[in-house]
Amino acid sequence: MRTLLINCGPIVHLSSDDDVATRTVDNSVIEEGKAIIIEDGVIANIAPSQEVISEYGDNSGHHTIDVHGRAVIPGLIDAHAHLLWSGDRSQEVRWRLEGKTYRDISEMGGGIQSTVNATRASSSDELQKEGYVRLRSALRTGTTHMEVKSGYGLNTETELKLLEVASALSSDRNLPTLDPTWMGAHDTPKGMPHEAYIESLISEQLPSIVEQGIARSADVFCEPGWFSVEESEDILKESKSSGLDLRMHIDEFADSGGSQLAAELKVQTADHAYHTSLDDRLKMKAAGVITGFLPGTPYAMGDLWPNMSEIHKHEIPYTLATDFNPNCQTLSLPFMASLMVQRCKVQPLDALASMTVTAAKSSPHKNGVHGIIREGAIANLNILDSPHWESFSLKPSHTPFSATVLNGTFISH
Ligand code: NIG
Ligand code: FE
After folding, report:
1. Pocket test for ligand 1, best of 104, 227, 327, 336 (most atoms within 8 A of CB)
2. pLDDT tens track for 205-227
3. Residue 19 shares a structural domain with residue 31
4. Residue 265 CB: number of other CB atoms within 10 A?
5. Residues 154 and 206 in one domain
6. How far is the CA of 18 from the centre of ligand 2 (A)?
């Protein structure tokens, strides 16, 4: 099966360089007038439209789409999402506005634990239906691949159920592909002593997850009051020796040493990281750790934005992702880009790289190269509704895309 996208506008390929210091519009964008040839879900060639039209013009064995000069960017990668859970915590907004903290709300019976109760009560079918609707919504705003965490089960049975649902959704060709992460260490289930839960994570949950081969990575909520640095270290080291890649939630509420552990263990990505000191950011950078910023969380919770000028000045590699969860109910990466570009002085090219080429490093696609547009890459692309590629970051309330190509299949929005 061959698809020709002819008369493309500017193509932001991002394939020459993923170095924040040397990436420029000149070395990341191809001028308009090209065609992208897609064969069997892979980008086969990028060539001048006229040449492609004369070579393939008479051949009916393909599907030709005229892009009419609209800009093209890679498929977006959401490198941090809590996709699967049931229930509704909307009432917590009133408590937050009355001044209650995340910890207070959790002690009042809200927070993660209340989502855990609702999620345990849902069947696999119900979770799969919810996941399907959410993934179709993410696809409409250009997401073609997503890192998906368990973590609202907090027992072996439900954590396995969540990862099994993720695996079923990932094999649906009409949905973004998924990169599954086990996050049993998201909270301690009610009624179980904290130490006993950690012991069960290591001796029961982790071995079952590994035996089923349904998670690529492990993640831990390393934050005072949830999992300490020492506890996180035990869980992560055990996960690593069981063959999983490592991810962390760190410094969301306080600078508590999680970043030093992230650097020491060379985790793939350490996310939130709002209260991390510059010194620790530099240690993570030296250790090859990517920082995942999740602008939807401060947006939803009324917290401060990260200091992006400092991040840029020190060339800290970072991804931008949604952190979709019951408190932060958006799966739109263009909205994340808008928050960064229109509120935090991030250049559109840097915002785009953080949700494509850099995100691909923290959440690799099991079928090959993605997050860039070049020969041999998986054909995951977004066609804007504008000739200006920057517009992907300027439409926070509706999709900036007229169409998405998902693993080679053209989907009109
Ligand atoms: O990344 N902070 C930990 N986990 C999620 C939120 C969990 C929840 O409140 O349900 C996050 O923001
Ligand atoms: Fe999160």
Report:
1. 327
2. 999 999 999 999 999 999 999 99
3. yes
4. 19
5. yes
6. 25
